[in-house]
User: Which sequence fits this backbone?
């Protein structure tokens, strides 16, 4: 099951990009034998700075055809890491071929795109920088693959 992280903004050089690349590489290696991955990042940028609606249009075009849409939103469902792993496994076991995780810009995700989501998850009631959320999500993807593989990485 392929995984795409569709996000507003360009992640340039720096520690966030290094961490993102590292965790996605780990996820791809760990998940391969379990039918998870590969994962990629699709970045979109509202160069005219028109706002959430324009970002939603760009994100909508970035979502791979047939992908389940999962938004990362402060109003989303709070999941433990094992619950997130089970969720990924359920999507895979139901024959879902592609998941698209959506990360909005500084103002969040336009309500029209949020309404189309198959699922919405939250990393807590605090607001996180959208560049950092990519890293957090990539780590949770790797952690989920590790949990499903029975690896000792996740210590519950």
Assistant:
């Amino acid at each position: 099951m392929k995984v795409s992280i569709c996000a507003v903004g360009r992640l340039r050089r720096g520690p966030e990009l290094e961490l993102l690349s590292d965790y996605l590489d780990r996820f791809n290696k760990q998940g391969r034998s379990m039918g998870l991955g590969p994962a990629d990042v699709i970045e979109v940028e509202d160069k005219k700075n028109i706002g959430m609606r324009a970002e939603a249009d760009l994100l909508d075009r970035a979502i791979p055809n047939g992908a389940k849409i999962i938004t990362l939103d402060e109003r989303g469902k709070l999941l433990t890491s094992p619950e997130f792993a089970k969720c990924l496994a359920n999507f895979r076991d139901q024959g879902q071929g592609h998941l698209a995780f959506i990360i909005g810009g500084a103002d969040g995700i336009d309500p029209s795109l949020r309404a189309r989501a198959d699922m919405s998850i939250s990393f807590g009631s605090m607001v996180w920088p959208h560049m950092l959320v990519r890293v957090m999500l990539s780590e949770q993807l790797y952690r989920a693959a590790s949990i499903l593989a029975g690896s000792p990485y996740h210590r519950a």
About this structure: Residues 130-149 form the longest helix (20 residues). The chain has a mean pLDDT of 94. Helices lie at 15-31, 52-62, 81-93, 111-116, 130-149.
